[in-house]
Structures are given as C-alpha cells and as structure tokens.
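Replying to the earlier thread about multi-chain prediction with a worked example.

Input:
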Amino acid sequence: MTGTSHKELIIPNLTKHLSSVRDAVTAVVQESEFPNTDMHRIILAVDEAVANIMEHAYENRDPESKLTINLMLDADSTKFEVRIQDSGKEFDPSDIQTPDIETHVAAGKRSGLGIFLMRQIMDEVKYTFVSGVKNELKMIKYVR
Amino acid sequence: MPELDIKNVDLDDGITQVSLSGFLDAHTFEQLDESIGDLFNEGKFKLIIDLAGLEYISSAGAGVFIGSLAEAQENGGNIVITSTTPNVFEVFDLLGLTQIFSMVDDVESAKKVF
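Result:
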C-alpha cells in the first residue's frame, strides 16, 4: 500500500537515546502520507512515553544497563500509531491523575507532566500487559 | 548526539540572561537544573530565559522552570521566558504555562517585567 511507513527500533534504557526515538518518529511521519502538521506534537508524545518508561518502569540509570525499549512505529494517510514495549515494572498511565498546573507550580514539582502531554496530544493511550513481553503502551493519533 | 548549551550573562539591575540552545529533554534537563541552582546560590534570582536557540523542549525541560519559579519569586526575583520558537511555545501552551510565566517577545521587553 502506498503512503504507509513502518519502523522498528530497539534502544538501550538510557536518556541519551531519546534523540534516536525523535528521529525515528520524524522519519516515519515524513515517509508516509500522514500530514506533517502534527509532527512536533507526536514527537513530543512519544519522547514523553519513552522517558517515562526510563524513569518509572526501569528506574535504572546504570550506563552499563542492558535493559531495552522496543518501539514499533506506523503511519499512513489516516493515522500514526506507536507501540512501545518494555520489560520493567508495570506502570499504568491511567492511574495518574491530570495535574492542576497552578498547584504543580506552587509546589515546585518538576515531574509528572509527561502523561498529561501524552493524553492531550494523542487520541488513544492504552496500556496492556503482553505475556512474554510485559508492558506495552499503544498510542494513536488520527488525522482530522 | 543532541546536546544543550547554556550561556549566562549578567545584565544591569541584578538581572541574568540565561540563553539556551539545542535540546532540553530528559537527558539534558539536569544540566540546566544545576546551572540555575548555581545562579540561585550566587543570589541571582532575576532570570531572563532566552530560548531563541532552543530547538526542542519536553516536559522534563519545562519542569526545571516550574521547579525554579517559586524559589525565584520568594527571593524577590522572577523567571521571564523570551524569544520562544513556535514549537517550544507550543509545549508551554499545552502545559498551561503561558498563564503562569511571563512570556515576552525579546530580551528588552523581558527586562521591563522586573
């Protein structure tokens, strides 16, 4: 089928690899018929999702870490879809409540806004437990 | 690998201009956090954050400003954001931070906020 693009990416559990994630999202969108207008937002949502896995699911900042995160990216003229898999601690974004930004700022809280952004940007944010893989986060953005 | 560059310049009236370029994400935010912490330790609480050269910001990066604002204001200062590119402004907007921070077009306008 024309206009579709697919990429798979396996990255180590290190924040320095977030740039590779952003580059892969850019490539998938640009190589597909998905409109570029939402590209920056989608890059941000996927970056936030992977950064959350690194911080919450793995909680491991060892530079020698062998832990990995798998990404499967698909785009066509109707939607962008990403599936992100990790083998860390179960972490369900739906458990996290939407923060009140004024309270957040008053408390000087520095984290906890990534999931808020993911929900704002993407049309679907679903977490599942996949046997043998463990955590999978699927996010979809539809063309309007 | 995309990095973050930070340049601090002291202006008049106790104001410090912090110019950022590159990428402010979960990999680089601690660099900025430490740099602002150093300025606070030197008693510098009036900060103009010039984002003209910043190509990308995620919530980890915005979190540094969120975490620093209250301390700056409690010490008679403020954090004023200036010269955002459209993509960086969009992140502030999505997070609702355009209502929280003073956001102006250029450094000269930012000086007038203090």
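The beta strands of chain B are 4-10, 15-24, 46-57, 78-82, 102-104.

Feel free to reuse this layout for your own posts.
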